[in-house]
Amino acid sequence: MREELKSCPFCGGEAFERDTIVDGINVHHVTCKYCAADVRAPEPNPAYAVTLWNSRFLELENILEELEIAEAKAWDSLSRYKFQMFGYWAAIWIHLNRISGKNRPNPWRELVMRAREEKV
Ligand SMILES: [Zn+2]
After folding, report:
1. pLDDT in tens, 27-37
2. How far apart are the CA of 10 and the centre of ligand 1, in A?
């Protein structure tokens, strides 16, 4: 029997499970629907993500790691003209930056400023 998901440790929101492929490996995630808090576990034990989520594994150290990953994914997406994926990862970065409480400067600020200059 599957373990039931607890609510998000940060915002109390409902969580859901999803699967992705990272570097050719199946990865199972538990993600908050509202604040994008996320834990993941790769094969061979993807169900471990549920255990991690329910054990409140999410700690600042892990959030900061996810923040780095989200930024790297966003830059990578942008470099390949994958604008929709850029938006996805940039939004996750924004959420994680907020819940980390670190309030890091936005890595895409210069791009935003450039866009404002171009705006007619
Ligand atoms: Zn949440």
Report:
1. 889 999 998 88
2. 5
Global pTM reads: 0.56
* CA distances (Å), origin 37, targets 63, 71, 81, 104: 8, 15, 26, 17
Q: Are residues 94 and 108 in the same domain?
A: yes
Rounded to the nearest angstrom, the distance between the alpha carbon of 116 and the centre of ligand 1 is 32
Report CA(94)–ligand 1 centroid distance (Å).
13
Beta partners for 30? 17, 39
Which domain range does residue 37 map to? Answer: 1-57
Are residues 52 and 74 located together in one domain of the fold?
no
Cα-to-centroid distance, 110 and ligand 1 (Å): 29
